[in-house]
Structure to design on (487 residues):
């Protein structure tokens, strides 16, 4: 029996709902086919697939990042407005060299956000764009008055300004966004950010390009040289089976593949702590947020698919590592104010996979739906023994648990990372609740996934939890995630 103690009197900060954000790039079949369709008989509203949008609405997505990714620093917004037939084509040089017709552009992105009910987060082009191009895009989108750019927006069908809260000044400018040194990027950031004017009522929240994985030197330099001009600093960290050259298969792995992925997650924890320590040093008042705007499992792409499309399967391993990482963000919710898993549809650790008119929801989709009770909840004190074991060079916790309260309800989520041992949780509570409900996500085999023929192979089931005398008991089988709501 594993003893867990929840102390709701100990409040440990708000879990910003934006931690459950998403990312959609012009990459492979994420936007085209996966979200946006034209003339192929798939039911849609203004081009957005009804099946995909309806499924995603269940996740209460708070914020969506677009158009990239590496694509963002090659994207010229003017190519994506106006009559679709007259929009110029471009070559998507980052992702498979395919031709992009620009039919999904600014207006279509805001339409998608409005259908999903989420905040838009746009990343601008620093790598190959100009300051003028970026400042004009902001005016085009957000100016309410009488200006040539605002009037052009009106002619393109949008009278009211778009509401834009989050804007990223470049993406991975240490790599695909220009291979810059941090000092150079910092100067560019300062210049570009100056011209991101606030036309609307709410000031635009500016996000600087942060480090890759463990590159704390980038964090230090950008914070030192440009930190005072930004509200958020991004961070990208992908996880695989540990070796970038051999990322491992997304659906055909052995026990070592399971544990090496979890070991990578522990290394990610370490890197996160290091970046936060640097931020605490340069920004002791905590004015700058950490925005983990790309994270997730990145495995080898599915055999026979375009390697530039980053299409991979999604198993129980993704749900398990996903919960460990989301709990990690909860633990650092003072600094981590947004995270955007890569990516929403058909790319990397996706929520939804599509093939023609077919759609499958992944274990990661179910995870995000099961965890949504934490969005904007107040994290509360929780004491338990993580019971770490050694695997693949790391000490991996067998168990990770997180709890938060919101509107009088307590949400508890827990994951058992082991392949070989079930657990019985005995959770002592410090408040009275009338009842408990919850779900469990697990599967017989670690490599199970939801295919188009078997879309419910890995799907949540109601959980049998017992509540009596201020104590909750529940079974947490090997390789499972659970979520409980007490009211
Ligand atoms: O998400 C895929 C790619 O990963 C993004 O385009 C880039 O920013 C990162 O390297």
């Amino acid at each position: 029996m594993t003893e867990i103690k929840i102390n709701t009197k100990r409040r440990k900060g708000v879990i910003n709902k934006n931690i459950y954000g998403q990312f959609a790039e012009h990459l492979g079949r994420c936007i085209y086919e996966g979200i946006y369709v034209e003339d192929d008989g798939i039911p849609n509203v203004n081009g957005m697939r009804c099946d995909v949008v309806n499924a995603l609405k269940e996740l209460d997505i708070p914020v969506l990042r677009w158009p990239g990714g590496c694509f963002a620093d090659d994207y010229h917004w003017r190519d994506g407005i106006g009559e679709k037939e007259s929009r110029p084509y471009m070559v998507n040089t980052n992702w498979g060299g395919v031709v992009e017709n620009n039919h999904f552009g600014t207006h279509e992105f805001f339409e998608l956000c409005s259908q999903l009910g989420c905040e838009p987060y746009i990343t601008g082009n620093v790598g190959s764009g100009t300051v003028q191009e970026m400042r004009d895009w902001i005016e085009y989108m957000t100016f309410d008055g009488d200006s040539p750019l605002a009037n052009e927006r009106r002619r393109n069908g949008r009278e009211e300004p778009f509401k834009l809260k989050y804007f990223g000044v470049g993406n991975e400018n240490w790599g695909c966004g220009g291979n810059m040194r941090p000092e150079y990027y910092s100067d560019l950031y300062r210049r570009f950010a100056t011209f991101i004017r606030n036309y609307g009522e709410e000031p635009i929240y500016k996000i600087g390009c942060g480090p890759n994985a463990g590159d704390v030197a980038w964090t230090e330099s950008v914070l030192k040289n440009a930190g005072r001009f930004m509200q958020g600093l991004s961070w990208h960290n992908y996880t695989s089976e540990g070796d970038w050259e051999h990322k491992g298969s997304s659906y055909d792995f052995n026990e070592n593949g399971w544990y090496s992925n979890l070991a990578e997650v522990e290394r990610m924890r370490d890197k996160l702590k290091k970046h936060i320590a640097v931020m605490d040093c340069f920004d002791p008042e905590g004015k700058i947020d950490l925005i983990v705007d790309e994270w997730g499992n990145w495995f080898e792409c599915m055999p026979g698919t375009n390697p530039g499309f980053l299409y991979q399967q999604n198993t129980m391993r993704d749900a398990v590592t996903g919960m460990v990482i989301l709990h990690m963000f909860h633990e650092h919710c003072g600094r981590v104010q947004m995270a955007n898993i890569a990516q929403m549809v058909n790319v990397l650790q996706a929520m939804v996979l599509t093939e023609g008119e077919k759609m499958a929801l992944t274990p990661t989709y179910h995870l995000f739906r099961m965890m949504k009770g934490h969005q904007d909840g107040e994290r509360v004190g929780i004491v338990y023994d993580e019971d770490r074991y050694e695997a693949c060079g790391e000490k991996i916790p067998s168990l990770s648990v997180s709890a938060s309260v919101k509107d009088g309800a307590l949400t508890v989520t827990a994951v058992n990372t082991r392949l070989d041992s079930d657990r019985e949780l005995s959770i002592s509570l410090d408040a009275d609740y009338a009842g408990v409900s919850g779900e469990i996500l697990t599967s017989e085999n670690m490599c199970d996934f939801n295919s188009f023929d078997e879309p419910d192979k890995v799907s949540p089931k109601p959980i049998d939890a017992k509540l009596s005398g201020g104590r909750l008991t529940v079974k947490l089988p090997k390789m499972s995630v659970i979520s409980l709501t007490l009211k």
